[in-house]
Amino acid sequence: MSHVVTRAVVLDNLEALDRTCKKLKWVFNRNKKTYRWFGEWVDDSPIPEFLFSPEQNAALLAMSKDERREYLSKVFGHCEHSISIPGCKYEIGLMRTWEGKLVAVWDWFYSGGLPYVLGTPDEPEKNPLMQTYTIECIKMNLEQQGVEYSEVWNEISKVHEIEVVTGGVWG
User: Distance (Å, rounded) from C-alpha 147 to C-alpha 139?
Assistant: First the structure.
């Protein structure tokens, strides 16, 4: 089974991605051009629409199921970078959308292990990649401005909080 999902979060800061992976104890495979997934699009889940232009989406939907399976099986599995998560059989691929934006793509079928770490498509709030990447981008922005901050894990709300101490435009 293949169940490919992607998020409309642009991951264009490779340094923040590297820091994110180190923080999560994952491996950022810079310039690795493939990622592990089921290996075949079986056409039993929605096409990640924003990867493709409206015209490409229309053409994909107009294809027969067999044509779509063959075409998408060649598209998925290829990427610009990948992320490996210890204990997971499948990997996250970082692919360019039709607009040139870098986004995360992965096969969320349970046999690959990723849903246990990233949640399912219906649970984006459980995805530590998106949350940690956002925090790392904020921290990098503060660092570039010379702002001193502290990072705190809020056990009640289960989120990371950034507390500005001093410096930059605020201090």
Answer: 9
Q: Nearest 5°: phi and psi at 69? A: -60, -45
The 10 Å CB-count burial string (b at 16+, else e) for 114-139 is: bbebbbebeeeeebebbbbbebbbeb
Q: What was the pLDDT predicted at 1?
A: 42
Please, is 152 exposed, middle or buried when counting C-beta atoms within 10 Å of its C-beta (0-12, 13-18, 19+)? exposed
Q: How many CB atoms lie within 10 A of CB 82?
A: 24
Q: How many residues in total does the chain contain? A: 171
Q: Which amino acid is at 45?
A: S
The CA distance from 56 to 134, in Å, is: 30
Q: Average pLDDT per run of 10 along the chain, which is 171 residues long?
A: 63 94 96 96 86 95 96 95 96 94 88 84 78 90 89 72 69 48
